[in-house]
User: Fold Carboxypeptidase-like regulatory domain-containing protein from Ruminococcus bicirculans.
Amino acid sequence: MKVKDAWYFNYTQKESEILQPDMAVPESHVGIYCEFEELVFPISFHILGMCKGEVVFDKDITAFGNGDDADISLRKSGYGAVFKIREDKDCEPDMLRVIYEAGGKSETFETECKYYTFSGQVSDFDGKPFPAVVMLYRYGFDAAPFIMGTWTDLNGRYSLRVPAGSYNAIYSDDNSYGISSLECWGWNIIADRDEVIDLKIGNGEVYSLNVSVNNGGVQTLFLTFRPMVYFKKEEYDTVVGEEKVHITDVAPEIAKEDVTVYVNGRKTDVISLQKLYEASPDGLHLPMYMVQIPREMHPDCLDKQTVVLEYDTKDRGNGRACSRGFTQFFYKDGFCTR
Assistant:
């Protein structure tokens, strides 16, 4: 077992500011991410948080691997695991030291801590404020106790102080989820500066948005995503390639003119839109789309890239379907890199 990352999330909202406590209540905590071939329990942690040379918390805790308790939670996925250790100090430590022992072996992990502020407004597709929760997954994709987040105010405005680093995803919605709305998702979010992130909630999702670079003769970007709407689920068989497959279809029918893409705030052309299928190892097939856009060279191409994709079918077809999603990346040696 090797600890690869540690952070402290300081949740400062008052109870009266939590608009829907039945949906989500974020918590202050120490997070520890480790990788392993085998987790051997018990695992003891000694965690030291420092700020300007002074100790702000000093905590000993043991994980026994027999489920969550009031002080420590664990989620595993493959060869990675996240420990959430509850701590409620109102502080931003600038250094964390984690001494951990398992199987008779002790090691130390130490990291400098930085923090940045995400802020903005959550709205709907009619431009109205949408009070909601804004949450981030740092690693993996699991239950709410492992999420960092905050609630907006009644005007949909939020400010969220987060530990520096990469996050698997950010999302926003309220308890109308699955009834009249679905989440606004951002993917591969990079907290390396204070940033304004406006979120837009509709009745669909831009799920698993990803960017790849065409470095061949045509200098373009490919955006792939799987759209969903809450009001559709159809099952049918079709032929993909030469294979007959069963489709579970929760996606709206999207046309090229329904799609709008922005790169670093600039609207760009949509060259093409193609329908594909995502396949799981157990045979599940779901409709997805690939959008091709120009790879435009601007002076900011050496900085972080933010790609925003929206679809809005207006009133065409069987009712309006709309959502926004976004993702971030850096170019390195001409390639898209995380």
In short: Residues 218 and 320 are 34 Å apart (CA to CA). The two ends are 24 Å apart (CA to CA). The mean pLDDT is 93.
